[in-house]
Amino acid sequence: MAARTAELTEHVAEVRGLARELGGRQVLAGVDLAIRRGEFVALLGRSGSGKSTLLRAMAGLDNDVEGKIEISGTAAIAFQEPRLIPWKRVLANIGLGLRGDVPLERARAALAEVGLDERADDWPLTLSGGEAQRVSLARALVREPALLLLDEPFSALDALTRISVHNLVLDLWVRHRPGVLLVTHDVDEALLLADRVLVLDDGRIVHETVVDLDRPRDRLDLTAPRASILDRLGVISEEPA
Amino acid sequence: MRPVRHADGRPPIKRLLSPLALIAAWQLASVIGLLPEQLLAAPSAVAATGWDLVVSGTLPEALAVSLQRVVLGFTAGAVAGIGLALVAGLSKIGEHAVDPPIQMLRAVPLFGLIPLFILWFGIEETPKVVLLAIGVALPLYINTFAGIRGVDAKLGEVAAVLKLRRAELIRHIVLPGALPQLLVGLRQSLGIGWLALIVAEQINASAGLGHMINDAREFLRTDVIVVGLLVYCVLGLLTDSLVRLLERRALTWRRGLLS
């Protein structure tokens, strides 16, 4: 079953009892999840915990899941690798499949928002990793999604680029206010960005932490939730503070 | 394989020396009688004959006939090869319908079909054009089909997420993605196409380059034969560089190893 568009009032996405079997293994075993309008949710999990499977199902890319997925309005996704179409110039990548009025102008505005208006006519293969990921974000956001799905989009970036793309994502989120589901395996990243951090383990959501702190956040304020999440993830001995 | 080139795109002088020496030796062997004219005419004689053939209109006429065969055969073969590859590449049903017979046809030696073609189509233009078309169609089919199937599935997911319609998916993702492989097929096609033309023209041709060469054999005119071969060479080189030009223009998005 693919993600269905529905009229939700409070939430932009509701997932109930989602299950997925893959090669005899229960990758998702009854996941319940709701994302409010404008809420930034991070989903943590170890490799193979099923977090990407959940995200792909919500993006409508998996037709073999059981359970219920309802999305209010459109969902857009930014993948781990930017997945730009190499034979389309940057601007055309953003505008691809865009319907409605003046698609190219909207694409240009989105490109300006991620600070790359000068690269509009360049080929994707000439972009750096960070630039390509920015274009990928612009391509997702230009569709004005109610739900923005981010599949570890920062994991391939170097540390410095990652910080600037983090800030960009927060900026864009504040401006457009989509509901965000960020899949990551980086606890610090989740705590720095999200309103709510979920931990997925063995196909179920086993932990939830609400991070009620203003942004930008100081890593020092995040020590306590960090320890409890790492505990849930099965990381045993952390260095004493 | 590409020859070594200078930055300005011209082969270095060093690489010209040995071919020039060979031609000089050939000329010398002809002049002192070591190489009889009935076996191979001297380079100077070839050049003079070439000029005569152009001026008398024999060569342009023959060339026009041969080129017409090439254009017809190549166009038919390209349309068939690419068309069938689209049918087979874009759907499983199409693949099951189209691919097995083509693979069977591929196993048949192309030039072994000539006797049948003569029986079916006579000895006029048709069998020559059909032979050329089949020779051109097969590599184009195989490469275009592989190109379509080789398009990254991840880009297919992007298309799904961007809600592209099927026609848009084909136009924006599948076809451009298959283009590099299609162009490889095009170069192979041209290679086989010229070969098919040369073979086809040797049989019962009453006009064209092959006829000119065959005629010359009857009169032991090795100079005319060499001129004919040189024309084939030039045509082959021309079409090859045309495809290379096409590749450069169509694949500018690729950040090549050497660009």
From TrEMBL, chain A:
Residues 13-227 form the ABC transporter domain. Pfam families: ABC_tran. Its EC number is 3.6.3.-. Keywords: ATP-binding, Cell membrane, Hydrolase, Membrane, Nucleotide-binding, Translocase, Transport. GO terms for molecular function: ATP binding; ATP hydrolysis activity. This is Sulfonate transport system ATP-binding protein.
Automatic annotation (TrEMBL), chain B:
This is Sulfonate transport system permease protein. It comes from the Bacteria. One of its GO terms (cellular component) is plasma membrane. Keywords: Cell membrane, Membrane, Transmembrane, Transmembrane helix, Transport. Belongs to the binding-protein-dependent transport system permease family. It comes from Nonomuraea soli. Its main location: membrane. Pfam families: BPD_transp_1.
